[in-house]
Design goal:
The chain is an alpha/beta fold and about 550 residues long. The protein is about 40% helix and about 20% strand. The protein has 17 helices and 18 strands. The strands form 4 sheets. The chain has a 6-stranded mixed sheet, with helices on both faces. Helix 15 links the parallel strand 15 and strand 16. Helix 3 packs antiparallel against helix 4, helix 12 crosses helix 13 and helix 12 runs parallel beside helix 14. It is globular and about 95 Å long. The model has no long low-confidence stretch (mean pLDDT about 85).
Length: about 550
């Protein structure tokens, strides 16, 4: 029989006067892998934290007796002042409940009166907890974490190296390795954006790990490919509530569209029946036919009106859509960029970023750059942009080629400016109303437009950076992780915009769904060599496995 691990019944959660969750219900059973999705600010992380901490304002959260919980948080728990060795030795939150209960028993054991009562049962529990701690690796966290780190390809650095010297992706791997120790006895794992800053290879390793993990999982993620690979259920947080759907993300999208269409038809048909019944009622009254059927029709109308009200409550709240149009500056030549005999080395690195490489970009090319963390993907974009110079070789940018650059850290923005000031500085020809209208198309309203960029969220800054890119003249886009911090709807809009773009695109991305939708070529960068694959990300994976390209409308399972 499948165990019920967590039962969430009619919970509410608010912060001050702001309601975030209302009347939420959720049942988590053994083996569930639940993806939690929704737009930025919908309350996904709040739902995760409310359940794990049992911090609801109303309603009940019931945990099965004795279950163990583990947490892999969005904000990686990393101490940059420590060495890699020291950081790997720190225990993750999955040991918290065990160690707290052990400490509580040990505190009781030193009191003489402890041995006057039924202490034998407590000592049996103490022994059981010690065994659980040992079997889950609690006494040897560093050694087990080092093994995971080696699997993730991050054993090249000396253990005494400061964490501060690692890249963002390497820090994410380090946190992941430590947080994944001791999960063998865990019943439910909470994961908040677990793929953030991970390269594709590490994400694929994590997918395999989670599919083999025996416990249940609640996963907040904007990674649609990841949700497809891992999840068996989807919970959408929208309009304060949580809606449950069977299957992975693609199945959820299909079901939601079908459900919305069916719900719309149901509302329309019920409204037609109300009108027809009201018409029949009016006709009876005009004919002075007053009998029991009139009372029945009144009740029927009231019942149908209540049904329509309930159906309308199920209609998802429509958010203001992100509107994007991206026009390329006209360029007559088909040639865009040519790099020949390119070498790029950095002092202290054993292997070159580029080693005698030739690459070319033509008008209409949409290129995705993939490769492991530290292979030099962002460096390659900077070389193409001219921010860095080749150690040797030639970079030839065609006349008339104008580059637009989207940095993953939003480096093109001035964080001391507000969105209004940033756009006004870029386009002084815009009147204030034009600036506000442009920001409104990117979902900026009210106080947001005058708030400093340093105080805005990552997703809000990403939207300002995208708007800035749209208002610039360009015909070659360089985009470094453009989907980071964007919610699902914004990603969809960006993808449609880029597919309609007539210029050329080169993007670094770990978002496999995005690469599948947008690119027509893959550059795989590894140990200084660029290998070219034609097609999107799925075509690239199939080619590496020796499989033919997909036929039209064929679905890939690799």
């Amino acid at each position: 029989m499948v165990r019920e691990l967590i039962c969430v019944e009619n919970i509410d959660r608010s912060f001050g006067a702001v309601d975030v969750l209302r009347d939420v219900n959720l049942l988590v059973k053994d083996g569930d892998r639940i993806g939690i999705v929704g737009h930025n600010g919908a309350g996904k992380t709040t739902l995760l934290n409310t359940i794990s901490e049992q911090s609801q304002d109303a309603g009940d959260i019931k945990l099965a007796p004795g279950i163990r919980l583990a947490y892999l948080t969005q904000i990686r728990d990393i101490d940059s002042n420590k060495t890699i060795e020291e950081e790997l030795s720190r225990k993750g939150r999955q040991f918290q409940e065990l160690e707290d209960e052990i400490a509580e028993i040990e505190a009781r054991m030193i009191e003489p009166e402890f041995y006057d009562g039924d202490w034998e049962g407590v000592m049996e529990r103490y022994s059981e907890l010690q065994q659980m701690l040992a079997s889950s690796g609690g006494g040897n966290v560093a050694a087990i974490a080092k093994g995971i780190l080696k699997t993730l390809g991050l054993d090249k650095h000396p253990m005494e190296m400061p964490v501060s010297k690692l890249s963002g992706g390497e820090k994410a791997k380090l946190a992941l390795a430590r947080q994944l120790v001791g999960l063998s006895g865990v019943d439910v794992m909470f994961l908040d954006e677990p793929t953030n800053h991970l390269d594709i290879q590490t994400t694929e390793w994590l997918e395999k790990f989670l599919k083999e993990f025996k416990g249940a999982q609640l996963i907040v993620s904007h990674d649609r490919f990841f949700l497809d690979q891992v999840c068996t259920r989807i919970v959408e947080v929208d309009n304060l509530r949580a809606w449950n759907w069977k299957g992975n993300y693609s199945q959820f999208v299909k079901q939601k569209a079908e459900s919305a269409a069916a719900l719309g038809d149901l509302i329309k048909n019920t409204e037609k029946k109300i009108q027809a019944t009201m018409g029949a009622l009016a006709q009876m009254k005009r004919a002075n036919k007053f009998d029991k059927s009139i009372s029945a029709k009144h009740k029927m109308i009231e019942r149908m009106q209540q049904e329509v009200k309930l159906h309308r409550a199920r209609v998802p709240k429509q958010r203001k859509a992100l509107i994007m149009t991206l026009d390329a500056v006209d360029k007559a030549s088909m040639d865009v960029l040519e790099i020949t005999d390119a070498c790029m080395t950095f002092e202290g690195l054993e292997k070159p970023i580029l080693h005698n490489q030739d690459i070319e970009v033509r008008k209409g090319d949409r290129i995705g750059i993939v490769g492991g963390n530290g292979q030099g993907k962002t460096t390659l974009l900077k070389l193409i942009n001219g921010d860095l110079k080749l150690t040797s070789g030639k970079r030839d940018l065609a006349p008339g080629c104008v580059i637009g650059y989207f940095h993953q850290d939003h480096a093109t923005l001035d964080f001391d400016l507000s969105p209004v000031e940033q756009i006004t500085e870029l386009r002084p020809d815009f009147k204030y109303g034009d600036v506000r209208a442009a920001l409104g198309r990117f979902q900026f309203t009210g106080e947001q437009v005058d708030t400093k960029l340093s105080q805005l969220s990552g997703g809000e800054r990403a939207r300002v950076a995208l708007l800035k890119l749209l208002l610039e003249d360009n015909n070659l886009l360089l985009m470094d992780e453009p989907t980071n911090h964007l919610d699902m709807a914004s990603k969809d809009t960006l993808e449609e915009t880029l597919k309609a773009y007539t210029g050329s695109l080169i993007t670094v991305s770990h978002d496999r769904w995005f690469l599948d939708q947008v690119v027509n070529r893959i550059w795989e960068l590894h140990d200084g060599v660029i290998k070219v694959y034609y097609g999107n990300y799925t075509d690239y994976i199939r080619a590496k496995k020796g499989l033919p390209p997909l036929a039209k409308d064929e679905v890939s399972f690799v």
